[in-house]
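Exercise 7.
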Amino acid sequence: MVVAKIAPSLLSGDFARLAEECERMMSLGADYLHMDVMDGHFVPNLTLGAPIIKCLRPHTKGFLDCHLMVSNPEQWVDDFAKAGADLFCFHYEATKDPMALIDTIHSKGMKAGMAIKPNTPVDVTYEFASELDQVLIMTVEPGFGGQSFMPGCMDKVRELRKKFPELDIEVDGGLAPENIDLAAKAGANVIVAGSSIFGAKSPGAMISLFRTAVEGAQPSSAT
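Solution. The predicted structure, written as tokens, is:
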């Protein structure tokens, strides 16, 4: 059985107080700290890079789940490994040789994740899943926070969970109280949420709500 992991997206945090935001989320029960890395090329927005991860690392023991929405992710593996990233998640659409990239990520001591966009079929992940530590199913188009959840992507989660019952399956984009049950019942166990956590009156309660949904749904969806 897979474990529920809640990953607040720091893209919705206060960038002027990023280290404090990381520690606040961990103290409220977060399992991962989701770091959205955008290059202005693969996606039309710019966010943070390895230098910021390096600066954050001494200030948090949290698991840094780095989602690279970048072209040519191969060029950034060394930088993120040296910066202290725990997981390096690349987009299938951004590389010509996913298996070589997975091997390189592992050789640098990081966990390897693969993300797919909403319009990318889930079966492209199958041949790599046994070597991956996590697969990320995007539930919005990558590049901007605050978008609406795309429920049609849950079919991909269901198919992936049925085929790989022990795999960590992450969902990212528009996750909120009104759709967390749908994601959890489909089989997602790693939940990325930005605005719904950081914008909540009680972020800790929101993290707990997400965890409860996953823990309640996961056993039946993984059978």
